[in-house]
Amino acid sequence: MTARTLTPRQKIFYEIIFGTETPAGKWFDICLIAIILTSVLIVMLDSIWDLHAEWGWLFWQIEWGFTVLFTLEYLVRIWCSPNRKAYVLSIYGVVDLCAILPTYIALFFPQAASLLIVRLLRILRIFRVLRLIAFLNEANMLAGALRRSARKIFVFFSMMIIITMIFGCLLYVVEGPESGFTNIPISIYWAIVTITTVGYGDVVPVTALGRAISATGMLIGYAIIAVPTGIITAELASGLRGNHLTTRNCSQCSRAGHDLDARYCKYCGSDLPALHQEGD
Amino acid sequence: MTARTLTPRQKIFYEIIFGTETPAGKWFDICLIAIILTSVLIVMLDSIWDLHAEWGWLFWQIEWGFTVLFTLEYLVRIWCSPNRKAYVLSIYGVVDLCAILPTYIALFFPQAASLLIVRLLRILRIFRVLRLIAFLNEANMLAGALRRSARKIFVFFSMMIIITMIFGCLLYVVEGPESGFTNIPISIYWAIVTITTVGYGDVVPVTALGRAISATGMLIGYAIIAVPTGIITAELASGLRGNHLTTRNCSQCSRAGHDLDARYCKYCGSDLPALHQEGD
Amino acid sequence: MTARTLTPRQKIFYEIIFGTETPAGKWFDICLIAIILTSVLIVMLDSIWDLHAEWGWLFWQIEWGFTVLFTLEYLVRIWCSPNRKAYVLSIYGVVDLCAILPTYIALFFPQAASLLIVRLLRILRIFRVLRLIAFLNEANMLAGALRRSARKIFVFFSMMIIITMIFGCLLYVVEGPESGFTNIPISIYWAIVTITTVGYGDVVPVTALGRAISATGMLIGYAIIAVPTGIITAELASGLRGNHLTTRNCSQCSRAGHDLDARYCKYCGSDLPALHQEGD
Amino acid sequence: MTARTLTPRQKIFYEIIFGTETPAGKWFDICLIAIILTSVLIVMLDSIWDLHAEWGWLFWQIEWGFTVLFTLEYLVRIWCSPNRKAYVLSIYGVVDLCAILPTYIALFFPQAASLLIVRLLRILRIFRVLRLIAFLNEANMLAGALRRSARKIFVFFSMMIIITMIFGCLLYVVEGPESGFTNIPISIYWAIVTITTVGYGDVVPVTALGRAISATGMLIGYAIIAVPTGIITAELASGLRGNHLTTRNCSQCSRAGHDLDARYCKYCGSDLPALHQEGD
């Protein structure tokens, strides 16, 4: 049996921390969102040199306050969870752990030793923002449309990577190192910047042939921007349409295509079977 | 009772100023649009240094002329409105007030004191252009599609902000201050510029790892550009399809929304009136 | 009566020049496309300084050859047209005239006098490429979808221009002349470059507040890129769907929604009325 | 007769190399993808100067190893193919040949003679990545949607090229050589960079008129980005909707394509088999 029996106190905490129906549970969630956003803001402010020089010590103290708070919350979540292992191994459990670990790890690595690693560890705390995803219920619908079109999007990306490789190599051959196309990876970086229509302008073709080839590449990129859009739109539209129709058949004339709110067959006027259990 | 009884003179003014059916009302609207556009043009021309040096005094006079005109119009609107409080507090009432206030406020703050504030006040007059929105009836349809997909778009933007924060922090750690990624807010600005495919090129990755990460970010941005498009298209298409429903009402229960091929009311099962001659 | 009676010789010319069914008419069209593209290519090559210095005289001769050819064709078109006035005033007639006029006008304005005007006149010959539009039959379908959504697109553009004006003015106030935002028209140019995600990088915000505002503007631009796409897609999809359905009603059960190729009612199995006169 | 009779040994090889059903065939395909990606990676690494200086000799050896391997595979494919000519002339046969030829050709052209040509030949090996397309089954669906909308996309591109030519020429006349618009081809390159919203910023208008014209061009580009998207989406959605048609065949005339709610064959009027249990 996977779920433990909770003591009454654990039940109360469970309803507050994991639940979203009770007023206490709602307030807990709202406070949590506010605290997460504040802690992310502190990390961002701390990265600005002027503010770090003046308020660095204060930021450090607030940072530790948030870390202790999130650690307590993490422990309480484990304590009052009906299925501890499931929570710890769930995406939210891992994200909760990742939100507190970097501050502790930074303790044991002296700052002087390797600055970059420490900087990386301290920035990782910003991933706390990922915890907000749990509050986005509607994301599931979008994720569903993306999941259904996953294979098509994979094919699309494979083709796009092949196209960027070909254009990158062509420009590497045509332009050469003196125009900034010093090697193939950089040329492919240029091709991605171009095909996605970002167009930084840090690597740019200068020869007539290179410009002609890249103009062709842009037009192709412009055309294929339509493909992922088309795929997702078609999936979303199909999902939207599907939600309005049931698969109920009329018991008299056995025709389908009745709306969700239909009570009588629109073709023969007889009663329609009632709707039960329409999941999703 | 909220609506006052208007005197005959107020009624005439009301029909001209608020109405759009009578010829006088139409002409008033057309003149108003022309005047608004002219006053916006004057603000724009006044901001060009050469023109301001030569024609600044003239612009100042024209500006005051428009302000007096708009003030008179605002007062007449209040005077002839059947429900004064409702008009003053409506969006259009507030916009009308905002279109005249800046010129008056600029009077009391001497120009020498704080140039930026004055400049701001004078530029705010350009918000007069917002008054044109009132004339765009069809905007409601688009606004409807946007409102219906508001929750989905909110989720989408939340996810996009999380993505830009993660990519911004990654690039901040990988590139560091020497490449222009001096702090996290700037790195997030770079991430937004990149994911939205604007691509100024003022902050650009220079290391191989930074370029690889940002290329990944671009491809993700390219893919998710499809999501808002898909959402809105699906909503618009669904709205358009709604137009294929007939407006036939059931003679028994008088509910509408029946499909073109429906012969019986889907709500009460009684006969529907036959369809004749439904052109498009 | 608008149409004249043509002599037999005029009829032959008319079928060759205006017609597309006969082999001669098809060959005439193919030759014309080839000549137009060649003449456009010559104008383009002539603009490259190195080629102009060496081959300028040759280009000038070829240019005059094409002009004489197009002039002859224009005169023959008028001569053999059943309704001369209608042709001359039609879009194609005007375009045909515009394709030959610049070379003649350039004769009477000495090159030394005003180089820019002459250059403009000579470049105008490139508008010959517009003549190709006549050969794109399928363009009508696209144009139809655009025309049906014209009002919505107009509303969309009005709102976008209002948004670019507001963002342009905000950045003008926040950034000021020292960042390149020297006046409001330039700031609006920047706002258009940003909202359309072109992002040249020639005018770029440098202050923290300016970057925050422009990041907001980019996200808004990213969202509203969906709106015109959605409008046109919905129209095209609706057009595509419409083409597959007829409005024929079954004479027995009077239900509609039959496919174009249906011969029997799919609901009751009786004969469907034949399709006549389905234009488009 | 086009297909030869295969010996038992040829049959086994055929099933492994061309087949995808047997475990051996699947493993062969997976190994092949891994080897192709590795060989492409080697070409990319070899282009980086630092790595080439240090590991160039190793890369050369690995390169020859892959070339021999692919040559053997190519010969075996010809040997065990039931229809040799069809394979050699098929797209995959040509791509397989192109993947090995460059290394051999590079042997006969001494490196010192013409570096660029040799570099081109060596880079051509990266086209091996094209061989992956054969493994993308789902690409056919996307290709189908593209093929069905090919005419519309062609019309769209013709119109876009006409628009870019007109804007390019306008900017060439307005801006002139001193702003970087040195000739018409470069101006058209700028117009393509702008209309596709890539926006490098290497060629940029600087005059007020030039900026006004290019802002107009951007807005037009922004609007017409919707057109290819709309075309492809409409096609894809129409393909997806096609899935809602049943695969029931009429028992009389055995034609398919009947709607879900059809009870009688729309081609011959006879009864259709009833629908049972059509999940989704």
UniProtKB/TrEMBL annotation, chains A, B, C, D:
InterPro entries for the chain: Ion_trans_dom (IPR005821), VG_K_chnl (IPR028325), Volt_channel_dom_sf (IPR027359)
Cytoplasm found in the keyword field: no
Entry's localization field: Membrane
One GO term (biological process): action potential
One annotated GO molecular function: voltage-gated potassium channel activity
Entry GO terms, CC: voltage-gated potassium channel complex
Keyword Transport annotated: yes
Membrane association type: Multi-pass membrane protein
TM stretches of this protein: 27-45, 57-76, 88-109, 153-174, 186-207, 219-240
Name this polypeptide is given: Ion transporter
